[in-house]
Amino acid sequence: MRIPLRQMIDLGRYMRAKKRSGEKYFPLVLMLEPLHACNLACIGCGRIVEYKDTIRDMMPLDEALHSAEEAGAPIVSICGGEPLMYKHIVPLTERLIEDQKRHVMICTNAVLLDRFVKQVAPSPYLSFNLHLDGMRETNDRVTDRPGHFDTVVKMIKMLKQNGYRVQTNTTVFRETSGEELEGMVKYLTSLGVDGMLLSPGYHYQVLNNDGEYLRKEDMPAKFLKVRDMANDYKIVNTPIYLDYLVGKRDLQCSPWTTVTRNPRGWKGPCYLITNGHYKTFNEMHAATDWEYYRTKQDFRCRDCKLHSGFEGTVALDFGKNLKDSWRMVRHYVA
User: Which in 11, 148, 151, 313 has the greatest CB count within 10 A?
Assistant: First the structure.
């Protein structure tokens, strides 16, 4: 399966409970950024630019754990920065799993994985999301780290040999060819990865390197290849979202489904756009006009097709259309 069965069951149970209670705006995933420091300087990352004045700040462990309780989302993606640089990463992971029964995904560049796995055993609630932006030449240019591709491959093999669940996360930039994406997907499949997420290169509010990113008109041709490959390979993007990327349907955004907490507070309104940071989840929620962003009225939203907002829409709409729901079931049980 492309997504762990237990995770799908827990997510479905959580969504049903929220809808029965009458809640409309609730998170599915917490993006927990306990720090913004990183041991890489990737060209597409806005965090090291946006938080350059607080780059060395780290969230206290109790604060990080409380953030997961505040959000209540069943899935916690520990990211950053490089989360394996966080000094409390081991107890944070263990307590999210053992005490709170969250499904934890660690989004990492893999450089420090050796040290982490010596301390944290495999669990059905734990998975790794390894950053890999193409084959060797492209990835090492994007990460500005010669040899990074080989490090990631080495860590994938190590994790799979030791029983961990492994997914990859690839940002597709303007120069990335369909042939390279196909070659990467086939190669990662040969390594036994459990899932591959591919997302269009997205423009952070604070970055000015427009030339790296896919233009709106570039996306259909680029992601037609991805959509075709999703029939035969473990690409975890939903088929509905892929239809959206290739221009076959429209989707509204659901930014509240993926919320972000970092050392400065709750980031609003979404992962890419920062209007402010709030002390509590409830303050951020109350301060945000979700319908304004859902309908892409903000000029910063007009060309955004980032998976975090639109895949949330797909999840919330599951069951409303029988044909779409059956496509989703077939996609994820394959």
Answer: 148
